[in-house]
C-alpha cells in the first residue's frame, strides 16, 4: 500500500522510526535553548550589521544538530518528499492563517495597543539590496522557528504518552496548545513584551502552522506555510512604502 493510504504517525515518540529517550530529548532541548538564546541577541558576534543574519542560520543549525546527535540516521523523519498535494497544503494553511488573523486582529485591537514588528518598519526604509537580503535570511530563520516549535511538540508528545500515560489524542492537543504558548513567549521581546498580543496574534498563528504539520507530518509543509505568511506580510509592507513614497 502507498504512503498516502497508510497515514504516518508522528516520529520519535513511539518507535517511528525510533523512540527518543528522555535524555535524548534533553539534548535536543539544549539545542533549542541555544537557538532561542542566540535569537534573543545574547551572542555578541551576531549582534551588529550584516553579521546579524548569522542568527538566522544558527536558528536552524542548533536544533537540527541536537537532533542529529541523538538520531544520526533518522533525523530526516521530520521531513517528507514534497508533492503537489503538499504545496497545496502550504497555501491552504497559509490562507487559513490569513483568514483567522482578521478576527484575531479585531480582538487584539479591542484589548490592547498593538506593537509593530520592527522588521516591518526596517523594511519600509531599507534599500532594495537589504530587502532582498532580509527575505533570503528569513528562510533559515523561519525553518528555525519551525524546529523550535515542532521538536518540543514531539518531545511533549513523548513525555505525556510514554511517561504520564496520556492518550494520544489528549497528548497531541496538549502539545499543540503548549507549544503555541511557548512560541508566543519567545516573541515577547520582538513585541515589547506585549503578552496579550503575543498570545493572541503569535500564538494563534502558531496553532495554524502546527496544524499544518499535524495534518501532513511533514515539516516542509508547515515551513512553506510560514514562509508564505511572512513573505506576504513583509511584502505588503514593502509595496505600501514604495507606492506611498511615490504618491
Automatic annotation (TrEMBL):
Residues 134-232 form the CAAX prenyl protease 2/Lysostaphin resistance protein A-like domain. The chain crosses the membrane at residues 25-45, 51-70, 91-112, 170-188, 194-213, 220-243. The keyword Membrane applies. GO terms for molecular function: metallopeptidase activity. It comes from the Bacteria. InterPro entries: Rce1/LyrA-like_dom. Keywords: Hydrolase, Membrane, Metalloprotease, Protease, Transmembrane, Transmembrane helix. This is CPBP family intramembrane metalloprotease. It comes from Qipengyuania pacifica.
